[in-house]
Amino acid sequence: MLLKVNVSFLLFFCCHFLMIAQNYQHVDKVVDTYPKSFLSIEAFGNRIEKDFTEDADKVRAAYYWISNNIEYNYKELTTGKSNFPKIVINKFTGDTDYYNQWNKIYATHTLTYKTSVCEGYAQLLFFVCEHMNINAKVIDGNAKNSIHDIGVIARNVNHAWNAIYFNEQWNLIDATWSTGNEDTKPNYFDFDDSYYCVSPEKIIMSHFPKNPEWQLLTKKVSKKKFYIQPLIYVKYIGLNLSLDPTIRGTIRTKVNGFIELRFNIIDTTKVYYYAYEKDTHSTELELIKVGEKYVAKIPFKGKKRDYLSLFSGTEAFLSFKIIPTR
């Protein structure tokens, strides 16, 4: 975690967000009966408003449908070329009006063609919420999703997600990262709602908003600190743990030495494992309680730079760059 907070408050806070994400089976079941396409954003929003009265349910319905029906456009990601028609705005009153019109057309194309990159997901969710009179924002910023990103500060923004106001608070939602699309599997969806109503303390490990206000943290995290953090995976979001904030994503250690990881909170009823990049199997992680923290000492016998990952079951949840020293 990046904030030093009271442990009991942290547990309540994380459980609160987890509870929000788990109470929508009734909404998902209804949305599963929706058509696979809508003629317009208004028609999409009207269908949701017909079925639900609470803002929280409406947002969940819009998010759930988008994440299960809009396919990520990997070709556009790699080439920068969209298959959408060229957007032309002829009449506008100023920059704000121009960009609002442009973004709504882009969101409409996302709905029509059922494919996009992150900006399309975020804009579509925004405009559906706007149609339903729910306060929403598109958050532009940086996402860290590769171990090679650790310690490398990106100059330009590369991701977009949403902040939406319901249940008397702002909620952070990433519809793009919920789809589970894969480049080699067309029309494949492996939906995961870990990035629905993510606590600010956890999402800041992978999402850095350009406007610091949307960190929703009392103590703001700098861009430098964001990039020197370890890499987290989706599995991390659902785990009841917090790494000591002094642990960085790049760890220097002596050959034949030990890597020491400290956790402020970790569920010791679970079994965790670790593995280096070329290991053929993982090794169980041993945790020792030292004061109020849990400590793991992992032997390092390599002589070259390496990558270390931690696992819960077969799923990785944290990764680090390891640099040997003499």
Average pLDDT, rounded to a whole number, is 91
CATH class categorisation of the largest domain:
Alpha Beta
Q: Any idea of the CATH topology of the largest domain?
A: C8orf32 fold
Largest sheet: 6 strands, mixed
How would you summarize this macromolecular structure in one to three sentences?
The chain has helices at 7-22, 25-31, 41-51, 55-69, 74-79, 95-113, 118-131, 200-203, 223-228, 234-238, and strands at residues 71-72, 115-116, 136-143, 159-166, 169-173, 196-198, 207-209, 231-232, 241-243, 250-254, 257-266, 272-276, 283-284, 288-290, 293-300, 306-312, 315-325. A hairpin with a 2-residue loop joins strand 4 (159-166) and strand 5 (169-173). It folds into two domains: 7-229, C8orf32 fold, CATH 3.10.620; 241-325, Immunoglobulin-like (Sandwich), CATH 2.60.40.
Report on the structure:
This protein has 326 residues and is an alpha+beta fold. It has 2 domains: 7-229, C8orf32 fold, CATH 3.10.620; 241-325, Immunoglobulin-like. Helices cover 32% and strands 27% of the residues. It has 10 helices and 17 strands. The chain has helices spanning 7-22, 25-31, 41-51, 55-69, 74-79, 95-113, 118-131, 200-203, 223-228, 234-238, and strands spanning 71-72, 115-116, 136-143, 159-166, 169-173, 196-198, 207-209, 231-232, 241-243, 250-254, 257-266, 272-276, 283-284, 288-290, 293-300, 306-312, 315-325. Strands 8, 10, 12, 13, 16 and 17 form a 6-stranded mixed beta sheet that branches. It has a 5-stranded antiparallel beta sheet with strand order 6-5-4-3-7. A 4-stranded antiparallel beta sheet has the order 9-11-15-14, with no helix packed on it.
